[in-house]
Write a structure and sequence with these properties.
- The complex is a heterodimer of chains A (731) and B (341).
- Chain A has 24 helices and 21 strands.
- With 731 residues, chain A is α/β, with parallel strands linked by helices.
- Chain A folds into four domains: 72-170 and 190-205, 2-Layer Sandwich (Beta-Lactamase), CATH 3.30.450.20; 251-294; 327-458, Reverse transcriptase/Diguanylate cyclase domain (Alpha-Beta Plaits); 486-729, TIM Barrel.
- In chain A, helix 10 (337-344) packs across helix 11 and helix 11 packs across helix 12 (387-403).
- Chain B is α/β, with parallel strands linked by helices and 341 residues long.
- Among the domains of chain B are: 68-162 and 282-308, 3-Layer(aba) Sandwich (Rossmann fold); 166-279, Rossmann fold (3-Layer(aba) Sandwich).
- Helices cover 40% and strands 15% of the residues of chain B.
- Chain B has helices at residues 8-25, 77-89, 105-115, 125-134, 166-176, 192-204, 217-227, 245-257, 282-297, 319-340, and strands spanning 68-72, 93-97, 119-123, 139-142, 157-160, 182-187, 208-213, 233-235, 262-264, 276-279, 307-308, 314-317.
- In chain B, the strands form two sheets. A six-stranded parallel β-sheet of chain B has the order 2-1-3-4-5-11, sandwiched between helices. A six-stranded mixed β-sheet of chain B has the order 7-6-8-9-10-12, sandwiched between helices.
- In chain B, helix 7 packs parallel to helix 8.
- The chains are: A alpha/beta (731), B alpha/beta (341).
- The interface between A and B is medium-sized, with 28 and 36 residues.
Chain lengths: 731, 341
């Protein structure tokens, strides 16, 4: 039995393990079923235990009653005690005892406990012994009592019972029964002890029967448990089917199929879950659509963005190549948009952009695509048109734009534009080439005087320019992918003591013949081809690596990292910076991010959030090219910069230009008032350095201070104010 | 005889005797010691010659009863009722209840002796024992069954039977239950006279009587359970030495289950399941006592038999028992008829 149980338990356990191994997860049905079966088994075990003990109690009770009845019968049959020479009585006594196999032995004792007569129902019971004295005394006390016997045996010795009962005679005291009243149980009665009867009982038969029944009950219980297990499993599966049915649609949902349908559930609880899932899918769908919307549209104007436009362009290219028709790509750049921004502020510039977008949309056919490429650049895909149609479309736009007047701060602005047109025709078309062609044509329009259109012509020059632009795009892409950029480090020193406070991180690209290319040469292309953010992230990664490589315990290394306007468009900037710098163990207050003034005032609210987020992490900020933009002062305090870098244009001719001196002095004072340190760029000589110090500038950067190097090297400035003062004082 | 000069006085005496005899003949209870039909010497007196009407003679006034001391074992009804009857008959009496007060029997008997009664009437065993042991006067005991155990019969003491005569009992039983043919009885030792009386009564009434001697209640029950299979009725005598409440209950239960009637001397036992109770009558006991006291008064104590029989009885039946037995017998008859068909 035990072996079978163990085998069954092992089989169940193995099945369970296999199920878990298959899925790596516990099976709900099995768990619930296991708990239920366990509970049922526990209850069953308790029931059987109760049955056993209850049965024992009942048996004990029955044993007692039987014993008492037999005691009474044997008391009556106690011929040896009060009848003399009555053999018939003895025969009767023996036949009585033989009738009950549970009676092992009956012994009659005289008053002093000496055995008088005994009847054995079994062999080998041993000799009959006298009643021990104490037991005799106890038995005598039972004379006339309600339970006139002594019983030995019990729950822990269920089969053996021993009873010792006194035998006594009674007689009514009342002579002649004249006062006898049957209802008067307290009437005078004389009692006389005449002996004892002892009975040895063995109820092993009943006990064995009970155990046998218990065994049967256990088997029945096991069978029921097994049946319950199988049936219960089936029931549970059915009950949990509605949950299981959710698995497939949830998996679909997880895969991104937001159009998945959920079957209505029969149960309220599951129905609530289904509702929640449907709501989630719907919300995800909406968010997806919004994200798609955001991914494909410009948030300011609602027009397609560059990414989406290029997709449309690719598709149109295929159509053109397949069907042999032609379409046109128009690249539109607003003329002098910067001045409107500078004059009225960037919110005004945004309003103008939206107006231009609306106008362009109105100026085109419904099946044409209008997109905003960024800043003040737009692109239009004119489908199914020839050169004349393209020209006409461009002219229409120019005319409408000329007519369009934008009023801002009671001023009227006219937003003219330059349009570059290229045709989509032929077999070998590439979207980047086309954009480049349109861009080149647009630049030609601007060079020709703006407010006009220019059609791209496939000339040798244009091809070269095109190739150059495409070449740059490919080159930059390759440089990002293959880590071909280089980082150089230029020190920035304090003017007062000449010590290096930090190094600006400068990006360089090396040509195939080993020449270093300055950022001015490739960053505009990077911006044009949308690679700026990747380059920014590249710089962040490698600056962090350089920090961990060149930091020494006794020499603090601080770096200034340039961030472009494009990277602030990326909502993952803060997370990326934190993760990358943490990975390399960069201390936040060892990093200064340099941002240009034009970025800082372009989208102040957004930039403010990004900067605040990075500052909260402990990073510092430096405002680059300070003094070159409009309305920069009013935004300085809002954006909380730690440094302002005075544009090199103010320093270049400092010694000879008092206006520049005044400007620098003013900027230094502003910086001090605003709690910012000032850094002067483009310091080429000692005199400039000294003068900058006298004007109140805190730090200097330039060839005189230190040239860019491949690794950060703190360098003491050759001459400092303190030494200068010391020299003066010494004279 | 007439010529020899019979006197009027003699005639009157004879007439008185005749009257007494006639009255005696009217009694329904035979004396204890003699069979019921006691041969009575009846003298046939020839009719008197026609003479002048002689006015009837006045009966001689019985002699005044002597003062008696009535000693009760206790105030229970079996004793008190007899005492009450005695008080109605004796003009001069004193009653002593041994259960009342704190005086021991010896003090009471001393007082009795001092009072010099004509006789001491002891009612109940305790009174009889004390009186027989300590009284200086003749003692007449009643309501004592096991008198022989206590040596109550002496030269100066006599007794009145505690039971209705057995023959009268059996007769009454047969009148109520004519089916009685086999009767069982268990009694303790020392009642040989009673056993003889019972046997005689049984013989007279053509009843087979099975009498067994027992020495304890256990033995009584043992014998009873074996006897009951072979009897139609059980005659319970009030021998308290061999009876106990526990076995009486068992005996009555056993008898009831077998529809065997049990005759008892005590009405209270009808509640236990007895079929018929035949008990003594207090007035009859008192009358018998008076008779014996007269004899004692006449100085005729030695002529008085040791135990004087009673004359009357009071019979009560347990109707429920007989109804159940009838129904059971009817069922048995129907069953056996059905089986035989």
């Amino acid at each position: 039995m035990k072996t079978r149980l163990k085998l069954a338990a092992d089989w169940f356990a193995a099945r369970l393990e296999r199920a878990e191994a298959t899925t790596g997860k516990r099976v709900l049905v099995n768990e619930i079923l296991s708990m239920q079966v366990l509970s049922a088994a526990l209850v069953g075990a308790l029931a059987i235990a109760s049955l056993y003990w209850g049965g024992q109690w009942v048996l004990q009770d029955n044993y007692s009653r039987w014993a008492m009845q037999w005691t009474e019968d044997l008391n009556e049959l106690g011929a040896p005690l009060y009848l003399t020479n009555d053999q018939e009585a003895l025969i009767r006594l023996e036949s009585f005892v033989k009738r009950y196999p549970e009676i092992d032995r009956v012994v009659y004792f005289s008053k002093d406990g000496t055995p008088v007569y005994s009847v054995d129902n079994k062999e080998d019971l041993g000799p009959v012994i006298e009643i021990p004295e104490q037991r005799l005394v106890d038995a005598i006390k039972q004379v006339g009592g309600e339970e006139p016997y002594l019983m030995r045996g019990g729950l822990f010795n269920p089969t053996l019972f021993e009873i010792l009962a006194p035998v006594w005679t009674e007689s009514i005291s009342d002579d002649g029964l004249f006062a006898f009243d049957p209802s008067d149980s307290d009437g005078e009665t004389k009692k006389e002890l005449i002996g004892f009867v002892g009975i040895h009982l063995d109820f092993v038969i009943f006990h064995d029967r009970l155990l046998s029944n218990i065994r049967v009950a256990i088997l029945v219980l096991l069978a029921l448990l097994i049946a319950f297990g199988f049936h219960g499993r089936h029931i549970l599966r059915r009950a949990l089917a509605s949950i299981s049915d959710l698995q497939a649609p949830i998996e679909e949902l997880a895969k991104g199929n937001l159009a998945v349908k959920f079957e209505p559930a029969a149960h309220r609880e599951i129905s609530n879950i289904v509702k929640a899932l449907e709501t989630t899918a719907s919300a995800l769908n909406e968010r997806d659509e919004k994200l798609v919307e955001l991914a494909n549209h410009d948030s300011l104007t609602g027009l397609f963005n560059r990414h989406r436009f290029i997709e449309e362009l690719k598709e149109e290219i295929e159509n053109v190549m397949r069907h042999g028709r032609s379409s046109a790509l128009l690249f539109i750049d607003l003329d002098q948009f910067k001045y409107i921004n500078d004059d009225c502020g960037h919110p005004a510039g945004d309003r103008l952009i939206r107006k231009v977008a609306d106008e362009l949309d109105r100026s085109t056919r419904s099946n044409d695509i209008v997109a905003r490429f960024g800043g003040d650049e737009f692109a239009i895909l004119v489908r199914r048109t020839d050169v004349d149609g393209a020209r006409a479309a461009a002219e229409t736009i120019l005319t409408n734009m000329r007519r369009m007047a934008h009023i801002e701060d009671e001023k009227i602005f006219h937003a003219h534009c330059s349009i570059g047109v290229t045709m989509l025709e032929g077999d070998d078309l590439d979207q980047d080439e086309l954009i480049n062609q349109a861009d080149i044509a647009c630049r030609d329009a601007k060079l020709a005087g703006r407010n006009r259109m220019s059609l791209y012509e496939h000339s040798e020059d244009n091809l070269q320019r095109d190739a150059a632009d495409i070449g740059w795009m490919n080159r930059l892409r390759k440089a990002v992918d293959n880590d071909e950029f280089e980082l150089w480090f230029q020190p920035i020193n304090r003017i007062d003591n000449g010590e290096t406070t930090h190094h600006e991180v400068l990006i360089r690209l090396r040509t195939e013949d080993g020449k270093l290319i300055q950022p001015d040469a490739f960053l505009p292309s990077a911006m044009r081809f949308g690679l700026m953010t990747e380059i920014d992230f590249w710089v962040i990664r490698h600056a962090a690596a350089a920090y961990s490589k060149y930091s020494k315990p006794d020499q603090r290394l601080r770096l200034a990292v340039n961030l472009s306007a494009n990277v602030f468009e990326n909502d993952d900037l803060i997370a990326y910076v934190e993760e990358t710098f943490n990975k390399h163990g960069v201390r936040p207050n060892d990093i200064v991010f340099e941002v240009t003034e034009s970025l800082a005032i372009r989208r102040p609210a957004h930039v403010e959030r990004q900067i605040a987020g990075l500052r909260k992490l402990g990073y510092e900020f430096s405002l680059d090219d300070f003094g070159t933009g409009y309305n920069s002062f009013s935004h300085l305090q809002k954006l909380h910069f730690d440094y302002i870098k005075i544009d090199g244009s103010f320093v270049e001719d400092l010694l000879n230009n008092p206006v520049d001196q005044k400007m620098i002095k003013l900027m230094a004072e502003i910086g001090r008032e605003a709690g910012m340190k000032t850094i002067a760029e483009y310091v080429q000589n000692a005199e400039s350095l000294i003068l900058l110090g006298e004007l109140g500038v805190d730090m200097a950067q330039g060839y005189f201070v230190g040239r860019p190097t491949k690794r950060p090297k703190p360098k003491l400035t050759p001459i400092s104010l303190s030494s200068r003062r010391a020299k003066r004082n010494s004279r | 005889m007439w010529g020899s000069g019979v006197s009027l006085k003699q005639i009157a005496r004879v007439a008185m005797i005749l009257a007494v005899l006639v009255i005696s003949a009217c009694s329904t209870v035979a004396p204890v010691e003699e069979p019921i039909d006691v041969p009575i010497d009846i003298v046939i007196v020839p009719p008197a010659p026609a003479v002048q009407t002689i006015p009837p003679l006045k009966a001689p006034t019985p002699a005044k009863l002597p003062p008696v001391a009535i000693v009760l074992s206790s105030g229970q009804p079996a004793y008190a009722d007899v005492a009450r009857e005695l008080m109605l008959r004796f003009k001069d009496y004193s009653v002593y209840d041994l259960s009342a007060g704190s005086e021991p029997p010896v003090s009471v008997l001393r007082a009795i002796n001092d009072s010099d009664p004509g006789a001491v009437v002891a009612i109940g065993l305790r009174a009889a024992r004390s009186s027989v042991a300590m009284s200086t006067k003749p003692v007449l005991f009643s309501q004592v069954f096991n008198y022989q155990d206590h040596d109550l019969l002496t030269d100066d003491s006599r007794g009145v039977s505690a039971l209705v005569p057995l023959e009268a009992q059996l007769r009454a039983w047969q009148e109520i239950d004519p089916t009685i043919a086999r009767v069982g009885m268990i009694i303790g030792e020392g009642h040989e006279d009673l056993i003889a009386e019972a046997q005689q009564a049984a013989e007279r009434h053509d009843v087979t009587l099975n009498i067994q001697i027992a020495h304890s209640d256990q033995e009584t029950l043992y014998i009873f359970k074996r006897m009951i299979r072979d009897i139609d009725g059980y005659w319970l005598l009030p021998d308290n030495r061999i009876l106990s409440s526990r076995i009486l209950k068992q005996m009555f239960d056993e008898a009831k289950s077998r529809h065997i009637p049990v005759i008892v001397p005590n009405e209270s036992m009808l509640k236990m399941g007895a079929a018929i109770s035949i008990s003594t009558v207090a007035s009859d006991i008192a009358d018998t006592i008076v008779k014996v006291v007269r004899k004692i008064q006449e100085g005729d104590l030695q002529q008085v038999p040791p135990l004087t029989a009673l004359s009357e009885s009071h019979t009560q039946t347990n109707e429920a028992f007989f109804k159940q037995r009838s129904a059971a017998h009817a069922l048995m008859r129907d069953t056996s008829r059905g089986l035989s068909q």
